[in-house]
Amino acid sequence: MRGRDPQVARAPRRRGRPLAADADRYELYQRSVQSPEFDIALMTRIYRTHNGRPPLRLREDFCGAAALACAWAASRPDRSAFGIDLDPEPLAWGALHNLRALPAAAQRRVQLVQGDVRTVRTPRADLVAAHNFSFFIFRERDQLREYFRAARRQLAEGGLLMLDVLGGSDTQTEDREEVRRIGGGVRYVWEQKRHDPINNRAVFAIHFSFKDGSLLRDAFTYDWRMWSIPELRELLAEAGFAFSEVYWEDADGDTGEGSGVFRRRNQAPAEGCWMAVIAAGTLPPGRGAARRTGTKTAKSGKAAGRSPRVRSDLFDHLFGGNSR
Ligand SMILES: C[S@@+](CC[C@H](N)C(=O)[O-])C[C@H]1O[C@@H](n2cnc3c(N)ncnc32)[C@H](O)[C@@H]1O
Questions:
Q1: pTM (2 d.p.)
Q2: Per-residue pLDDT for 316 more than 80?
């Protein structure tokens, strides 16, 4: 989460303190783009498919304010979580707002660690999650492979690394803005500032606008390499993962927008903007407990028969709290 110096722009011809000046960018971020309960349900389903039991220990890499780690510990009394982030600012915010909001027993099951995800060691986990495209920060193959290797070493037997991935032709443009209301008279603005086709580097920013007309500009900015799914799967294999599989979000039949339902796929239709989840495992498929006991794997959908479609509010869908 970059954005150390968000700028407040005052509304034209308004007096008094602009609403943007008192806004809490972390609170707005969580309201706009995070949905930990959804992520927990999806990761649990995938892990259970492979191992025949629910995952208990989570390591949330690039955790920021650790919304996922905290929700994880609260989701079951036998669950614990580690959250790792380089930046002390979101960690402190998360400790104050997310961790402290949990019952005391759940608080004790969460540990937040400031450090680099490639070097911080934690007890081996059932799941390592790197969400909201955080690993796109690594722009060289060697860096990303090193991260994947480190993540693999943090996994227990049968453990899974869970990555979300964003792509599609609409993410390869410039000067594009998507705006969405997030309640309380606030609008979330996703700006795609730059895309470089030579190195696939892209710059994005999140701004928030308020009902008095003021703007919190560059609340968060991102300078990412837009990795493709095949590149990621090749690097995961090079990093020693035994398999990786792709969960693709189904389209809603009526609206063409994301339905929030993810299915394992081997092919998918071209879409202007898509989001997928990659699960990478340490044991070859068939060696996990679930396969040994005959538990069904996720069914493949009918991707090949689905019509290509255009999503009208692409980024609403992708970064919206509800659809994920
Ligand atoms: C896009 S935010 C993701 C926050 C949260 N995981 C989410 O789902 O919204 C990316 C976070 O990664 C952190 N980060 C970047 N490089 C890192 C590294 N090498 N090790 C640990 N954290 C890192 C940043 O400080 C930032 O908080």
A1: 0.86
A2: no
